Amino acid sequence: MDTIFVAINAKSKIRDKQKATEAGKVIKKGRDDKSLNRSEFLLALVTIAINKWVVTGEVKDVSTALYKLMIEHIEPRVDRNIFSDANEFRRMAYSKPVNAVLVKYEVSLKALFEVAAGGGAARSSQTADSLLALDEWFDFIKALAFLNDDVSDRDCKLCFIMSRMAVIDGSTPKGAIKESCLPFECFLEAICRLAVIKALPTDEEIQRLGCVDAGEFMLKLE
Fold first, then answer.
1. Out of the domains of life, which is the source (predicted)?
2. How many CB atoms lie within 10 A of CB 194?
């Protein structure tokens, strides 16, 4: 497995350098060199399937080998929620009532976004100046002290990942950045996803503790 990871990662870097040389450009680091983007991850799965069944002669067709890997080995071992429709949440969140709340706090939300996106791994490119990277999202969540029994690291990561926009080609420098970062609109979606899973106080609980809002309530619990 390690060999496949390293080989695919190395080939991608060589390809990127060749493309940059042909175009007379200098490569700018857009992502972690020790990681796979979406297209590389898919290539890794295909390579695993080939090595496991095609090379051994058990299966002749690559598509059949890939099907065996996905259906017989991967699907039974993963969380079923992963296979849910990514747009199912958006059908609820992209509504007039939710929009009204976001518009009401738009100024504050933009200020939070600008501060959160002020520095991090993605700042090495001008393309990412107005984007929020995953490490910055985690810093933002930690600053809010939201990581707890009700919200795990994995929950935060899924909120981020599920809120990304589709990218045509994640292998290009710009595509890699867009695929790994959130613009303001996607940040709002991630906030909505987080709000659904975070255990927040009811209006009655807020009033009972003599608080003005949920923020003051959460601070009093610390």
1. Eukaryota
2. 21
The whole-angstrom separation of Cα 173 and Cα 163 is 20
* Cβ atoms within 10 Å of 8's Cβ, excluding its own: 19
Exposure string of 128-162, with b = 16+ CB inside 10 Å and e = fewer, is beebbbbebbbbbbeeeebeeeebeeebbebbbeb
Return the residue matching tokens 């493309």: 19
pTM of the model: 0.71
Q: Pull the structure tokens for residue 177.
A: 């950045």
**Predicted confidence (pLDDT) per residue in 43-88, tens digit:** 999 999 999 999 999 999 999 999 999 999 998 988 777 777 778 8
The residues, ordered by sequence, that sit 6+ positions from 25 with a Cβ below 8 Å of its Cβ are: none
Sorted by where each begins, the domain ranges of the chain are 3-82, 86-221
Dig out the tokens for 46 from the structure. 């295909």
Which residues are within 8 A (CB) of 130 and not within 5 positions of it... i.e. 6 or more apart?
A: 117, 183, 184
